Amino acid sequence: MRFVVVSAMAASLMFGTSMVALAEEATDFGSELTSDMGSLVNEAKSEMQAQPEQMGEDFKTQQEEMKSEMKTKREKMKSEMKGKRDQMKSEMKGKRDALKAKKHEMKKAAKAKKAKARKHAKDAAESLEPAAH
Fold first, then answer.
1. Whole-number Å distance between alpha carbons of 132 and 124
2. For the stretch 19-29, what's the b/e string if a residue is b when 16 or more beta carbons lie within 10 angstroms of its beta carbon?
3. How far is Cα 87 from Cα 114, in angstroms, rounded to an integer?
4. Cα separation, 122 vs 129, whole angstroms
5. In degrees rounded to 5, what are phi and psi of residue 68?
6. Biggest alpha carbon distance in the chain?
7. What is the DSSP string of 77-118?
8. Distance (Å, rounded) from C-alpha 121 to C-alpha 115?
9. What share of the chain is helix, strand, coil (3-state, %, to 5)?
10. What is the pLDDT of residue 59?
11. What CA–CA distance (Å, rounded) separates 44 from 61?
């Protein structure tokens, strides 16, 4: 009988200690889950805090790119306009020079015509003078 009681006691102690061990493992598992969840929460918080900063940096980068693109376009347009202006100036100078040359030719022709008319008038006057004598 003693053997049965001792074995029953031993069995109950074993069963009790195994339950305690199971309970301890469950507690350890729970604390591991809690620490894992805490680390996940901390990671998520840090990512969420980093996201607005990253978005701000991305926005600034995008804004700087747009500014540089606009500056490049503006410079390109300025150079194109300067080229067109220079071309128009040269065309206008050519037209002005052509008009000056034409005016000069007309003055020269008018002068020659006037000189020719004077000469004819002088010749006519000379031819009339001897006939009058």
1. 13
2. eeeeeeeeeee
3. 40
4. 11
5. -65, -35
6. 194
7. HHHHHHHHHHHHHHHHHHHHHHHHHHHHHHHHHHHHHHHHHH
8. 10
9. 100, 0, 0
10. 86
11. 25
Tell the residue number behind the tokens 């009058």, with chain if given: 132
Q: Is the pTM of this model over 0.90?
A: no
pLDDT digits (tens, 9 = 90+) for 28-80: 656 776 777 777 777 777 777 767 777 778 888 999 999 999 999 999 999 99
b or e along 75-114 (b: 16 or more beta carbons within 10 Å of the residue's beta carbon)? Answer: eeeeeeeeeeeeeeeeeeeeeeeeeeeeeeeeeeeeeeee
CB-CB neighbours of 57 under 10 Å: 10
Q: Among all chains, which residue has been given the structure tokens 């376009």?
A: 73
SS3 133: coil
How many whole angstroms separate alpha carbon 111 and alpha carbon 109? 5
Encoded amino acid at 111, one letter: K
